[in-house]
Amino acid sequence: MTVSITSYLMVALILFCVGLYGALTKRNAVVVLLSIELMLNAVNINLVAFSKFGLYPAVAGQIFTLFTMTVAAAEVALGLAILIALYRNKATVNVDEMDQMKR
Amino acid sequence: MDVKDIFSYDWSYLLPEFIILGFATLLSLLDLFAGKRLGKQVIGWLSLVGVVLAAVFVFVNVNTLDKPYSYMADMIRIDDYGNAFKLLFLGGTAFALLISLSYLKKGEVQHSGEYYYLLLTGLLGAMVMASSADLITLFVGLELLSLSSYILVGLRKKSLQSNESAFKYVVSGGIATAITLFGMSYIYGLTGTTHVYEISMRLAEAGMAGYQFLVYVAFVFLVVGLAFKISAAPFHMWTPDVYQGAPTPITAFLAVVSKAAGFSLLFRVVMISFFNVTDGVGRFFFQEGSLYLGLMAAASMIIGNTMAIRQTNVKRMMAYSGIAQAGYLLVPFVPPTTLFFSEVIFYLFAYLLVSFGAFAVIMVVAQEQQTEDLKGFAGLYHRSPIMAVAMSIFLLSLAGIPVTAGFFGKFYLFMGALAQENYWLSAIMIVTSVISYYYYFGIIRQMYMRPGTTEAKMAVPKGIWVFVLVMAVATVFFGAFPGLVTDYVQTHFNPSFDFGNMLPPNFQ
Fold this sequence. Notes:
The structure holds two protein chains of two kinds. By secondary structure, chain A is mostly helical. Chain A has three helices and no strands. Chain A has one domain (5-93): Helix Hairpins (Orthogonal Bundle). In chain A, helix 1 (5-25) packs antiparallel against helix 2 and helix 2 runs antiparallel to helix 3. Chain A is elongated, with a radius of gyration of 17 Å. Chain B is built from 18 helices and two strands. Chain B is mainly α. The longest helix of chain B is centred in the middle third of the chain and has 35 residues, at 196-230. In chain B, a hairpin with a 4-residue loop joins strand 1 (69-71) and strand 2. The chains are: A mainly alpha, B mainly alpha. At the A-B interface, helix 1, helix 2 and helix 3 of A face helix 5, helix 6, helix 7 and helix 8 of B. Chain A: Belongs to the complex I subunit 4L family. Chain A: One of its GO terms (molecular function) is NADH dehydrogenase (quinone) (non-electrogenic) activity.
């Protein structure tokens, strides 16, 4: 039994939207980083699905996925490191309280 | 596509990239093993040597290479388009290093070694972005630049502002990356390849085969995501906060190098990929596509210039001014003409001189006055006339007033838009430029007409003094003789009007 490409794309799209919603609305900084990870993983699902069911199936998409995963890991590690530096100066992970520069 | 042995390539064309990579690696090792014993400045000077050496080899490439050289199916592609942008990046990084040498003496950033080699890795990312025609390599270059600049922004670890702006940068950058990638994944799905030139052909076929909607969706995602990097309107909200919190030389680096890198990537990928796509009437990119970019340009100019008026913090004001500049830079793409390449390179060149000069002055004044407020500039003319005059030249150039390089930059863009009969965009450009005079002259008013808290001579570090003077003279010089640059660009980078060899010969 094969699942059609539309199902994969729908899952990826839903995941992307959930991630975007989370990244824009959540107050906890860790959850925001987590939401970004969701968005990036939606891309991975897209790429892998396309590499089998795309208009021109090719392995390039799976290779692309390896790169996106690596970069996503680096990005979130960096985000957490910066968050820790921030936490040392001001004990909060609440995005609403990061308003030093509001004018 | 023929498969070649990696040893059969002539790797010497990649020397600029190898030099930067080598210097970044060696300097990080040097800092690790001998960082305590070496003076703090040594690594900075060594990085500068690396950047200059790389620039020399880019010039060698410019003079020896008469047609594009491609590595591994365009994973890396050495062409004039990339070389021109690379020279801008190398110049920008060299300037950033020069003003950093003085900035780091104040000790706000403890990790000076990391500061220097992260600038080099950021530069390497930018260079990869400018010289690749493959989505994977372009993405990796983009992220190398982004990740380096996230750290650089947050390098003042003890400052809450710096931490905060770095975190905001990471989050908005992460969202932008995800959006860009989502667009790229649709492009890949419709074409089955990451090679930009093949994408160009297959995307047109996909558009004809009834997948037009997906093609448009991919376009919008790609452009919106990349707008983040150039800080253009739909994605500009991070700019003021990040520019304000970052160390001043890094702000200048973001304003010039990072923005120019974003442009080089945006134009190459978006333009080539969507070049052949038709909407049934004509080329999609030259109609709806460039209309979309035009709306972005208009929004950036309006938002940037009107919001800048309200700012009292100088770096925040420069951030909004940077958003407006991104808007101006998008104007020649509505739709792109054969002249757009030299227009954009000249504008970026003028912007490079002026931004670094202005940020150097801002840095000195802010460090001396302990405030980044506009009031810090009060009475500067009486305390350091040369700094005040130089700053006035930079501001006039940013505003686009004659006998400065910035004037001709804007003038070329404006004439280009008029030649395309793009009257609405030209009108917005003129009106917003006039609005921008208000806040640029605000600084000038402070410098000459407001009494400062003190009349004492301002102590300006020698290095900065020379740097600012050279930038000011260059701004006026290239304002008087803009032909020197445009002719150089035209003869060396764009002799056949094909956007610096960006378009392959069979393109029509």
